[in-house]
Write a structure and sequence with these properties.
Layout: E1 4-6, H1 8-20, H2 24-37, E2 46-51, E3 55-64, E4 69-79, E5 84-92, H3 101-111
Parallel strand pairs: 1-5
Antiparallel strand pairs: 2-3, 3-4, 4-5
Length: 112
């Protein structure tokens, strides 16, 4: 059972970044295994940036082996009632300082 879905914008970002960082698809699968066990993450590499009864939005540091660093950020939604995860955004910390707040707000409008 696949509990993970992706926004179209996320898919474009993943495709673009994976050309620069070939291990990204595999790295994403590894973090998904952690997220299945700990939906809001575990440790200092996960931060809840939005919390409600229905959905939490989490920002995670994604360890990318191609970078030999934790510089890729993953923004995802955890739908508590469905145990479903939606990947919202993926970006390299060196290219972009912060997450796209407008995209998160727009996503939340469709859910809450």
């Amino acid at each position: 059972m696949n509990n993970f879905n992706q926004l179209a914008e996320f898919q474009k970002e993943l495709k673009k970044l994976s050309q620069k960082y070939p291990s990204l698809y595999e790295d994403l699968k590894r973090i998904e295994e952690i997220i299945i066990k700990y939906p809001t993450g575990i440790g200092k590499n996960f931060v809840i940036i939005h919390h409600s009864e229905i959905v939490d939005i989490i920002k995670a540091r994604l360890a990318c082996r191609s970078l030999k660093d934790r510089s890729v950020r993953l923004i995802y939604a955890y739908h508590k009632n469905k145990i479903e995860f939606i990947h919202i955004e993926l970006y390299f910390k060196g290219d972009k300082e912060n997450e796209n707040r407008e995209r998160i707000i727009q996503y939340l409008r469709g859910v809450e």
